């Protein structure tokens, strides 16, 4: 598994979101409190953020543990943003993809992360993969399950589906092909967040009382604020700075 987080609100330093809280994503890389599968998230990490006036996010990704990257420590101290998606990657089998396999994946205004695993990978998704245009398959950034799931989501976004619809449809499609999969997906365009809870924990913190609102969606709470709420399993979340909508996802039929 992995741990990930998305944030919308008034600009904050990356460190205030990802490093400083008592149970931050930084700490979750070695001491997650609610992770159900795996214990150490040290096979890469990444953070994407949006700058004012630019719809295309910047990314910083590495293939090692977040705690060993001093350049990230400097970056997190000075970079501020009002929209962020970050992830730490669970220890996995050795591969050649390096940081290309670390979330967030990106295209245009979108940032994406997958917390989980596709059961039976890669054979289980062989048929699903054939539904993608050949150019999309040849353009996969990495050869891991998350990269293919991202390609499936992106194909739907490009044909006009909204973020929540794209995530929900892909979750059900992949779960139908690989029933034991864990598919907590997270997507943002800098103005909205969409996420699925399917096989692992997902929480949100909504603070609409602030001047423009503030929303955090994460694998687990980064502090002990009682306002955190857990998203039920098999649920689709759609959020802005001020609103949260939860919709049950139907179990796939054969």
UniProtKB/TrEMBL annotation:
Keywords tagged on the record: Glutamine amidotransferase, Hydrolase
Gene Ontology biological process terms, A to Z: ergothioneine biosynthetic process
Keyword flag Lipid biosynthesis: no
Alphabetized GO MF terms: hydrolase activity, acting on carbon-nitrogen (but not peptide) bonds, in linear amides
Pfam families documented for this protein: GATase_4
Top-rank lineage group of the source organism: Bacteria
Membrane-spanning intervals of the chain: none
NCBIfam families named among the record's database cross-references: ergothioneine biosynthesis protein EgtC
Function: Catalyzes the hydrolysis of the gamma-glutamyl amide bond of hercynyl-gamma-L-glutamyl-L-cysteine sulfoxide to produce hercynylcysteine sulfoxide, a step in the biosynthesis pathway of ergothioneine.
Name under which the protein is recorded: Gamma-glutamyl-hercynylcysteine sulfoxide hydrolase
Native source species: Streptomyces alboflavus
Lineage, top ranks: Bacteria, Bacillati, Actinomycetota, Actinomycetes, Kitasatosporales
Gene: egtC
